[in-house]
Write a structure and sequence with these properties.
Elements: H1 2-16, E1 28-30, E2 35-39, E3 42-51, E4 58-64, E5 73-76, E6 80-82, E7 92-100, E8 107-110, E9 114-117, E10 125-135, E11 148-161, H2 170-192
Length: 193
């Protein structure tokens, strides 16, 4: 019976002792926004603060969850060194920059490229996901190895703003001017002979 009591006490202690106390390495994240309005066909950056209250130095960077991948292209985050015991109020600023591709469909008269307009008649496109703090790959400059998630994230919703514009007839006007100019040149050249 004594061994059973001892095993029960040890098991209870393991369940009660917070797991964070055993951690030696990790980070925290500070954010000031959960929703960003982004323009399509444009580069966008979001700034976060990261800190390391634990007792081991770490180099971290930012990435996005798979839910944001359709609208986040070419994400860039510079690995940032966080010395041990960097607290929340001393969080280091780090940017996550990315390109937002074309999301809304243009109404074009010829193919997908001539005499186009954007009426913004489609519903607003939104992507809900997370910004994830990753441990930077080990190594120098060229970075060998792979990033691993540090289990810390912040919610992020990207609202893609539709840019309304009227149909562009400039190619038609230029084409007509070129045809008239070429026809006039040909006509006057024939007339002189």
């Amino acid at each position: 019976m004594g061994i059973m009591k001892l095993a029960a006490i040890v098991l209870l202690c393991l369940l009660v002792v917070p797991q964070g106390v055993l951690a030696a390495k990790g980070v925290g994240i500070v954010w000031s926004t959960q929703t960003e309005a982004v323009a399509e066909n444009a580069r966008h950056c979001v700034t976060y603060g990261i800190y390391n209250p634990w007792d081991e130095d770490v180099t971290a960077m930012l990435s996005v969850s798979s839910a944001l991948r359709p609208v986040v292209v070419g994400e860039e985050s510079i690995p940032t060194f966080l010395p041990a015991e960097t607290m929340h109020e001393d969080a280091k600023q780090i940017n996550l920059c990315f390109y937002v591709p074309k999301v809304y469909t243009d109404d074009c008269l010829v193919g997908n490229f001539l005499f186009c307009e954007q009426t913004c008649s489609e519903p607003e496109v939104r992507y809900d996901g997370e910004v994830i703090v990753m441990e930077a790959p080990s190594g120098s400059g060229g970075a060998m190895g792979s990033s691993t998630s540090m289990g810390v994230s912040a919610p992020l919703t990207l609202r893609v703003v539709c840019n309304k514009y009227p149909r562009d007839y400039t190619p038609l006007v230029v084409g007509v001017i070129v045809v008239i100019g070429a026809g006039g040149y040909y006509y006057f050249r024939k007339r002189k002979k």
